[in-house]
Design goal:
39% of the residues lie in helices and 18% in strands. By secondary structure, the protein is of the alpha/beta class. A hairpin with a 2-residue loop joins strand 3 and strand 4 (38-41). The longest helix has 21 residues, at 71-91. The radius of gyration is 20 Å and the shape is globular.
């Protein structure tokens, strides 16, 4: 049986990927701990990894919505730890290295559709650290037989998901009206099951090395998402068309008092962020397991 080494196996994606791959692979895991400037990861014996092993590097520092983490932590974890893992891969006889980057390595906001050819201009330490890790990986020469896949997922959701989707779920299930009906947008999401499908395809299929966006096939608006949450939870759909200027003024006040719905969260909820998955879909054999709404319904039900 082939084996995989998964870094960050105790994180959100790792917890979902491990059972997805179980039965097909012998799975080994490492985790990392971050406390201020201290980073540790389990020791790895590179000599024990032969050509039947694959590296899947998930470990990373996600967005800190409370802005309590310094920029150095992002670089130490997202860039430096990735470099360390990749150097171990290069020293080993392993053939496959999968790095979970992010669309935020390209841009925090976009106009039109984000593709792999979009010029990378990240503005946050999170995005910049992810991009610098990518650049290191792509600038290293691979020996014959080795492959590298840099996956850039958009917002990933699934069981044990945390973030803005949870906040929206709480608002809707509590019966709080959604006041952002005036905002029109389209967003791409990535179901955790679809992401796991892509990762597994990189392990099993013949795919060209390179950078690939990962998203569901269809987009969805935030208003549609609110309706989907309400219908899934058998709640009344309550969408109000409050004037945009009033909404933004309230968001500023919320930010001043450190309430959840501040300007940053508002922008994330109503912005357009459409990601093309055309490149990876041309490489991968088989359809994605879940359509956008199917995946979101599974995630919504998991919150219960």
């Amino acid at each position: 049986m082939k084996s995989v080494l998964i870094s960050g196996i105790t994180g959100f994606i790792g917890k979902n990927l491990k059972p997805y791959l179980s039965g097909k692979y012998n799975i080994q895991g490492t985790s990392r701990k971050v406390s201020d400037d201290y980073i540790s990861n389990d020791s790895i014996d590179v000599n024990s990894f032969n050509e039947n092993f694959a590296f899947i590097h998930l470990a990373g520092k996600a967005h800190d919505l409370k802005n309590e983490v310094g920029a150095d932590v992002y670089y130490e974890v997202n860039r430096d730890l990735t470099i360390k893992m990749f150097d171990l891969f290069l020293q080993s006889d392993c053939k496959i290295f999968i790095y979970l980057s992010s669309v935020k390595a390209v841009a925090d906001t976009i106009e039109g559709v984000l593709t792999e050819d979009t010029k990378a201009t990240p503005t946050t330490p999170y995005g910049k650290s992810k991009l610098q890790a990518e650049e290191y990986l792509l600038n290293k020469k691979l020996t014959d037989g080795k492959s590298i896949y840099i996956l850039r997922p958009c917002m990933v959701h699934g069981p044990e998901n945390k973030g803005n989707l949870n906040l929206l779920y709480k608002f809707v299930t509590l019966g709080i009206p959604y006041p952002l009906g005036k905002f029109e947008n389209q967003r791409s999401f990535a179901s955790i099951e679809n992401l796991c499908f892509i990762i597994n395809a990189c392990l099993e299929q013949t795919i060209k090395s390179g950078v690939y966006n990962v998203s569901d096939d269809e987009t969805i608006s935030t208003k549609e998402l609110v309706t989907l949450i309400a219908e899934t939870r058998h709640k009344k759909v309550r969408i109000y068309n409050v004037n945009k200027k009033i909404v933004r003024s309230v968001a500023k006040v919320c930010g001043f008092f450190k309430l959840p719905m501040d300007t940053h969260r508002l922008d994330k909820m109503v912005e357009n962020f459409v990601v093309s998955n055309e490149k990876i879909r041309k490489e991968v054999k088989g359809k994605l397991p879940l359509k956008t709404k199917e995946g979101l319904v599974k995630t919504i039900k998991s919150f219960q």
